[in-house]
Amino acid sequence: MRLTHGNLLAARDFPVNLFHKANTSAGSGPNKGETILASVRKPDSPRTILLVEDSEPVRAALRAALEAAHYTVREAATGEGGLTQTAGVDLILLDIGLPDISGFDVLERLRGGQHSNLPVIILSGREEVDVKIRALDLGADDYVTKPFDPGELLARVRAALRRQQEAAAASNGVVQVGPFQIDITTGDTRREDRPVRLSPMEARFVKMLAQRSGQPVGTRQLTETLWGYDTAEQRQALRVLARKVRCKLEKDPDAPRFLLTEPRLGYRLVDPEFASN
Ligand code: CA
User: Fold this and answer.
1) Domain extent for 202
2) Is the backbone of residue 139 left (phi > 0), alpha (psi -120 to 50) or beta?
3) Residue 220 in domain
4) What is the pLDDT of residues 161-191, one digit of tens each?
5) Closest to 267 in 3D by CA, of 180, 191, 202, 208
6) CATH number of the domain residue 184 falls in
7) Which candidate, 50, 192, 46, 42, places its Cα nearest to that of 118?
8) Cα-to-centroid distance, 160 and ligand 1 (Å)
9) CA 123 to centroid of ligand 1, rounded, Å
10) Into how many domains does the chain fold?
11) CATH number of 94's domain
């Protein structure tokens, strides 16, 4: 199949109301789309997303959805324009049918240059199977099909950002949990690049949780690793330790978002942005 500007830009593919699906399927009330957007959790450190898309209405709709989810948005209407704006960008949403060079060209140049790992999500038309396959072959991370469901779009964006984060963590031994960067070999913890002062025991505790970020770590495993034995006294000490760490990591230690208690099991370090629903 040969792409043309026309077959990518068929007007019927781009409803002006991006939230059409949410509005109609939700039934009652005129503002269901807004309700859905309002429930999107604000990421702790804003990520920057570059939109490379020549259709102004599509860009506007994407910008609205992304900004409602508290992403910082940059826009380019051409491929060359997009390539000049990649510095500091965390993810690119890339249209294929662009007025100058194609999205495939943009993708090839990104992958061949300094952005070999930058997440790229292709914006494709519903029937463009060839486009999707070729884009994935060229190193795109994912694609979304126009017209967009904002919930699905944001889920794809979160997933792509998360995969990149996990790949980065695997390469340098640092995991990102919400605003925290935690070295999984030392427990050294930074909050948006400022060190969090942890005692050696607190750091060992955080390290154990960070090594299994998102998964629960059992009380017994924690006490035996931290103190060498598991008694009622150590379990009490563990609760005190968790409390101290929460006071350093959490805005409200009584309502923790990152260091969670797993009742009768242990503790879990989670990134609320990616916590399963
Ligand atoms: Ca286009």
Assistant:
1) 172-269
2) left
3) yes
4) 888 777 776 677 888 888 999 998 889 999 9
5) 208
6) 1.10.10.10
7) 50
8) 22
9) 9
10) 2
11) 3.40.50.2300
**What is the rounded distance in angstroms from the CA atom of residue 256 to the CA atom of residue 253?**
5
Structure tokens at 198: 């942890």
Q: Are residues 194 and 127 in the same domain?
A: no
**CA 142–ligand 1 middle distance (angstroms):** 17
- Shared domain check, 166 and 30: yes
Query: If you measure from the C-alpha of residue 40 to the centroid of ligand 1, how many angstroms do you get, rounded to a whole number?
Result: 28
Q: CA dihedral in degrees (23, 90, 3, 19; nearest 10)?
A: 10
Q: Say which residue the tokens 């860009």 belong to.
A: 59
Cα–Cα dist 80/39, whole Å: 35
Q: What are phi and psi of 121, to 5 degrees?
A: -110, 125
Does residue 18 sit in the same domain as residue 138?
A: yes
* Two structure tokens written together for 2: 């040969």
Q: What's the gap in Å between 124 CA and the centre of ligand 1?
A: 9
* Domain's final residue, options 145, 170, 195: 170
147 and 16 housed in the same domain: yes
Dist CA 107 CA 221 (whole Å): 46
> Amino acid identity of 72?
T
Question: CA end-to-end span of the chain, whole Å?
Answer: 39
Sign of the dihedral defined by the CA atoms of residues 191, 193, 198, 203, in that order: positive
The pLDDT tens digits for 39-88 are: 333 444 689 999 999 999 999 999 999 999 999 999 999 999 999 999 88
